Amino acid sequence: MDITMVYIGTALALVLVGLGGVLLKRNILKMVLALDIVETGVNLLLIGIGYTPGREAPIVDKTSFFADRAKETVNAANLVDPVPQALVLTAIVIGLGTTALMLSYVIRLYAQKKTLDIREFGRLKW
Amino acid sequence: MKQVLAILALLVLAFLFAGLVPMASKPGNGAVGDYYATHGIADNRGSNLVTSIVVNYRGLDTLGEVTVLFLSVMGVGFILRRREGTPKYSPVPASPILNTGANLLFGSILLLGAYIFVHGHLTPGGGFQGGSVIASGVLLLILARRDRELSHDLLAWLESLSGFGYALVGLVGLVVAGSFLANKGVLPLGTWNRLFSAGVIPIIYILIGLKVGAELSTLLDIMIREPAPEGGGH
Amino acid sequence: MVDPILLIAVPLGIAFLLPLVDRLGRAASRWVHFLTLVFYTGAAASWALALHKGTVAAKDIITASWPPPVGINLHMGLAEAVILSLAGITGICAALYLVPREEKPSIRSIVLQVLLLAGTAGLTLTRDIFNMFVFLEITSISTFAIVLLGKEKKALEAGFKYMILGGIASVLLLLGIAFLYKTTGTLNMADMAAKLPALFTGGAAAALVFLFVCMVIELKGFPLNGPAIDLYEGVEPGVMALIVGTTLNAVLFAFWKILPLFGGAAWEGVIMTSGMATFVLGNLFATRQKKVRRMLGYSSSAQVGLLVFMLPLLRNHVVTLAALGLLLLNHTLAKASLLWFTGIHEEEEIGGWRGAFANNPLLRILFGASVLAIAGLPPFPGFWGKWYALAGMARSPYAWWILPLLLGSLLEFVYYFRWLKESARGVEPARSEVVPFSLSAPPAIFTAIGLVLGIRALYGPALGVSSQAWLWMWAGGILLAAAFLPERVQAGLSFLAVLLGSILLYSSGALALHTLSGFFTSLVVIGALVFSLARLGIPALHRNYHGLFLLLAGSLLIVLKTDSLLGFFAGWELMTWTSYFLVRQGKKGPAASYLYILFSGAAGFLVLGGLMTAVAGGAVTISGLGALRGNTALWAWILLAAGLAVKVGSWGAHIWAPESYSEAPDVFTPFLSGVISKIPVFAFLAVAAKIALPGVTTTLGTLDPAWVLGWIGGLTAFGMTLLAVFQDDMKKLLAYSSLGQVGYIVLGFAMMSSLGWTAALYHSLNHLLFKGLLFVTIAGVIYRTGTRSLSDLGGLITRMPFSFFAVLIGIITLSGVPPLSGFAGKWLLYQAGIQKGWYLLTALAMFASILAFPYLFKLIHSIFLGQLKREHREIREAPKAVVLSQWILIAGIMLLSVAPGTVLVPIQEAVKAFFGKAAFTTATATELATDLGYFHAMGVMSMVVVLAVIVLAGILFFLPKHTTKVKQLDIVYSGEVPPPPEEIQYAQNFFRPFERAYSPVLLPRVKAFWKSFSESVLSLAEAGRRLYTGDGQTYILYALGVVLFLVLFIFPAPASSSSKAPGGKTGYIVPVPRKARPAEVGVQAPRPGILPGGKAK
Question: With a cut of 0.95, is the ipTM above it?
């Protein structure tokens, strides 16, 4: 059992938990939060995907990382994949943006209907 | 019925996910990731490779990311358009403990935030992280001084100018080095692991830090206000 | 050229600055907004033009000075440039439109609009998958926010559900990207597509499923389109128009860019099935929709589904980029216009559209044009796009997909023309719609763009649209634009145009009778001239009449002249919609014309199917149809014949015709019956016959399809004649009569012999003359009396003697007795039947002929004989122009009666070209002889005249002297006050016993069949649309369901490699060798060498 598998498994479990919340909770505020959990799970998954046990964070702050100091090349085998970490940064901010928008929708919907039950918002259909 | 189906679907999905775990946890970096790790220092001289990727290699993503944040501020403001005359802050005054704590901490939080984004190319953290720290300080301030309003003028100027500055730096890259958001050839890259290194990366990250700080503060400010009572709409 | 990166950078920078600019005042921000959009549109359009002309090459743009896959790269090609130009124009128009729509204008809505455009640019240009995600989110988030512009009661709910599902979509996309990165180690699309097949593992398979479902959600695919359709219903339509014109196209293009990842036949099948299901089902569900904007939502989903369906075809070079581009362009232009219209006329229910834009002729025309455009009719770009796409498909192994495609297109007719029907009904003068410029300009601009592009396509040299036809159509277009002129002036101008056009046609030799096209062109010219003349006496009901009429005549000239299949079909569809609008102008026209366009549409799609079968066989031109062989020939013939049979109103599909003929404006019905019904006949002869001739041996078992057609013609002749007998509405009576007469023509054609064809052609001309005469005269009677009901008339012989004489001549000719020209036609037809050996059919035709007598008698008797009604005592003869046109037609009939050979000899020439055998053994102007018989027209006429003179003289001679004429009411009363005289009317319940005798045959079975047919389609739609329960969580469950369905059933073994893709599971997949990369859209290849060869696996 690899430690990465634990990370990945946890991340995917979070996605499932979140999806469960989105599908089963009637309260739209909880649905938004559940979607946030899903997003967190995906972010965690991204980090897990880039992770290799035993490697260090991709910050070259020691000369020992260099493969060739003169050419400034680094021995990549010592570092975890920096790409997913960069992607996660972007994904988090985007998640924040959508969550903020959803929350303001919730505020407006509650003001309009005085309820948070998703079943009350099904006037448009067929 | 729907619930049962949902649970069933989730179970099947769990099964599918379980099958994906071994593949996703294979060790090793992606080809592009390896390139960044190997050549990142030579290309940009920023110690923090993630920062190099975020600000330089995938700079267009980050410009988009900043836009998303700006967009959500605009969007939330648009969605929660207020009616004139509605109360903004809760009239209940904050406790003296919160007040005093805020007074004590706000300055250092601001400083920490600034430190984080100024050193984004050297240490973990950067514009987004620093900006968030600053916004958390502002949140503290909002909670402590419920009777006062934030300076919207200052926030708006910060927001707009830092965002525009980011786009401008990108365009300078286009004019000077022939490609949008270019780093090499715009400013000297300096020496590795020094504060003044990595070319335009710290500049961009400072702009991002300011922008994120201002934007998150605005966002909090908008969302804490009471929404318009429904009926008249807006 | 402007660096394409500026399309992203400039709007972004401006958007950041806009809140500051707004401090200078809202006007300043609006100007900055406008200038930004102008820059955006200008930059994109200049790229589009230059790339189209080929003066620049497509450009790859790298960012941050790093070539891909290290840096993010962008690509500017023709497709990108067109999408962005369209987005820019939409942005400008939407901005204009939204200014008055926003109750409390805020700078934020302007910022959101600018960012939407910037996001569209990024989404379209980027070639990096994660970057695509970022820009997708930018467009999504701006969409989520801006949908709350305007009245937001419903928008809030719709928007929330849309957001939650959108959130699921972005999670799926991110999951997909994560697994794809793990598999390939890159984020560049081209690089990823190149590496993926070799590394195809379970993770990648799952990733593709996630990616695909995300795209289905974003592109409003079935069944995940519920929230998107809600959005159309709930959101300010101006905003929806903006979204349709910007992000929707960009997302579609994004899907195209990642399409190379979806390798393998299985994926191809899944994508195409999904797109087609969305198209057909979306259109099906829309037919049940009473809410206009929701209907547009279903339609949008369907149209995008069609485009999605075509993406794999584009990739396999089955469909060209141009075809797809035209469809996309058309959808954007038409749908945005229609959405704008739903904002101008803010009625939610379709019933509230009665009399919409009644007092705004410009908007009315634009609205009609938008519906035509969205229905894919010429000259709008969608027509050409559909044709090119279908033609590509027809020649490929994907040909069977044409079937559902045409079905879905027909369903579009059902609901869009129902909308037009509703909007035409009644006029509400109470509602005065003063539409501000900023609301009416956007649809005007979009329609104009569509028209310009479409007309340019119609000018294509390969289409063979003659300059003569153009002359007529331009005259029509100008007259349509000048519809504000008084009716009299328009009628005069229109007549002059027809006269001039006819002279030009004559002098150019286009009227030579001895060619098929010349013969039928002559019919058009005669009809147009005579009926335009008659119309000078009877004003048209609607101011657009004259322009549309000239357009219609022009379209007929296209059909008759062109040799190109596409040109033929373009003319055909032009004819369909111009005549539709003319029919619609009658008092009860809307309902009748709805039926007309549905059947015409169906006929059009049958013809299109036939033409596509021909295209599949390699034909491009009409003259090339002869090369078709075997089953291709058979099916092309059957489909064409079926379409043409529907269009002439053959039994079984006739129910549209009586309604249309009788409800059309009285001055238009003669043209409809006399000329337009002959165009399908021409098509039979000129198009269908070319196919069947080489393949007479192709039979369906022992069944000869021509024989079946002959029976259809014969039955039509019989059945329609019978039905005509019992009509009280005189136009309906003549309408049924027309259908019957065309039945004879079809019968003649089906004989496939020189004599049969000669009979058919001769009868076509004859029918034009006598039925035109009858309809024109009837129009005069209706114009004077104001009624169409036979039982309201009587005794008009004294008031309208010329009309009486005209009807008398008309019915004698129709009945086919000597000495008038009708006889020659029937005589030829029977001989042809006997020659062919179709005795039973000939007997049926003869019997049907006899059946005509009762209704002809009823017609003349009820109108002109019997007692004159009191209210008709002061009636005058029909207008002079009408009488003059009657005389012209009578003169024509007389000429044919005395010397049928003047026409039959050239006809014989025309037919000989097909059969190589002359119909007659001898033929001069007045004498005809066939193998079976001999006919001397002059002799017969002389005999009859001599006999008539003797009889008349006898009557005069034996007439008692001093007879007193007693008038109807001239009765002597013996000093009493006379009671009001009773008026006796025989037409009431005329032939009632006869009707009883025939009652078993007369049961309205056909009507009942079509009724139950349409009801079952509608109930299917009703059941289907219940899928969209309105519950946000159900929609998410659907999304999850689609993911699981794909994983479990389509890709059951995720570990299998793509080369062993489980294509066998799905029978509908057509395996086709796949080209590595689309050539049209240059995906930048990864630069080798930048990666130091370090494989991290």
Answer: yes
